[in-house]
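Severity: low
Component: inverse-folding endpoint
Summary: output formatting inconsistent between runs
Steps to reproduce: submit the following structure tokens with default settings.
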């Protein structure tokens, strides 16, 4: 019924299956339990149509026999790839990683490209948590474990440290998981503790707008329905986001990209430099054609070419006369309204309402060339209730 309701409502359907089954007598008898768990997976992946996501946590304990269960992660992943090849395997999985907290926030600098060490080097550290037999880079899905709670995940310092251990870089985007209530399951005593609209907006802007996916937990009540208080708050959130993001004030605007580097080789078929000498700041400018009021900006890198930006600033033109080639890269006349570190798939910025015709994005620091030359690099919006 849930799968059918999702399809009817235009929602993708995914499943969460906890590896820790407290009620299964074979738990702790690792080979037997792994067969049992794979049978459960097979049932879920073959009876409900297309599955978009399989979500695993890492909970693990001793079984009735007093032995800690050893999960067959490689076998689980292989079965998912066989039966639902398009499904994203999340959190304890190779496709999307846990962000490291359940507060609904990302790091200030959230990288999708992160350093990992090979599975063999991880085993000793992860055994206390029930992880063993992790797949290596030749196995389905790649590597399943890393220090997800590291504050500097993706930093140059961590990359260097992992490189010394023989590690490698991996595209491993983050997923934020948080509940609309204090807990993950329904309790009537929490009916008046549903997160406020402002809290949900903060979560949205710092998760979806922080280069991550958002998994917002909404527990069904004892009727098998979503409680009215939760529904009311979700509608408020949806309406507010629609009011804000329906109209992109930068749609159709004249844009220009200035890369501040000197080519020392050439460019590839996509126009990317194959070798260059970096000199200064890359600038993406946007001419709206008339002064517009906005208080939200959306920045996006072309992640088909990786993630590069380490620091940026957003400015509006307050100077006399129009923006020209002479003053585009200058300091005079421009006012900074926001700044940050990483961008990635999406960065959302909120700031006091400004009225401007010209906007520029400065890339202050980048790992190699910055991929901000597409029209969809910059979106400008007005939240009418800010």
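Observed output (run 2 of 3):
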């Amino acid at each position: 019924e849930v799968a059918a309701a999702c399809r009817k409502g235009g929602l993708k359907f995914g499943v969460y299956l906890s590896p820790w089954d407290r009620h299964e007598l074979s738990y702790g008898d690792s080979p037997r339990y792994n067969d049992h768990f794979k049978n459960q997976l097979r049932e879920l992946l073959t009876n409900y149509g297309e599955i978009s996501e399989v979500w695993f946590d890492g909970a693990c304990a001793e079984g009735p026999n007093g032995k800690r269960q050893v999960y067959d992660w490689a076998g689980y992943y292989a079965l998912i790839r066989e039966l639902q090849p398009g499904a994203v395997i999340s959190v304890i999985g190779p496709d999307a990683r846990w962000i490291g907290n359940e507060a609904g926030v990302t790091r200030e600098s959230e990288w999708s490209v992160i350093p990992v060490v090979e599975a063999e080097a991880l085993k000793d550290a992860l055994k206390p948590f029930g992880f063993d037999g992790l797949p290596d880079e030749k196995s389905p899905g790649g590597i399943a474990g890393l220090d997800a709670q590291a504050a500097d995940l993706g930093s140059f310092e961590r990359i260097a440290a992992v490189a010394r251990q023989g590690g490698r870089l991996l595209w491993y985007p983050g997923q934020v998981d948080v509940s609309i209530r204090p807990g993950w399951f329904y309790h009537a005593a929490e009916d008046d503790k549903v997160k406020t609209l402002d809290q949900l907006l903060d979560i949205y802007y710092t998760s979806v707008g922080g280069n991550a996916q958002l998994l917002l937990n909404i527990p069904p009540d004892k009727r098998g329905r979503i409680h009215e208080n939760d529904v009311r708050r979700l509608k408020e959130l949806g309406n507010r986001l629609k009011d804000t993001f329906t109209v992109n004030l930068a749609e159709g605007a004249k844009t220009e990209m200035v890369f501040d580097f000197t080519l020392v080789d050439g460019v590839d078929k996509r126009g990317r430099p194959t070798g260059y000498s970096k000199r200064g700041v890359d600038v993406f400018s946007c001419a709206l054609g008339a002064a517009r009021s906005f208080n939200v900006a959306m920045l996006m890198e072309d992640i088909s070419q990786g993630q590069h930006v380490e620091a940026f600033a957003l400015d509006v033109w307050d100077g006399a006369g129009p923006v020209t080639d002479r003053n585009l890269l200058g300091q005079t006349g421009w006012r900074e309204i926001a700044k940050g570190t990483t961008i990635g798939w999406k960065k959302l910025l909120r700031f006091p309402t400004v009225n401007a015709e010209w906007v520029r994005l400065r890339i202050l620091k980048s790992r190699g060339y910055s991929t901000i030359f597409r029209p969809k690099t910059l979106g400008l919006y007005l939240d009418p209730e800010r």
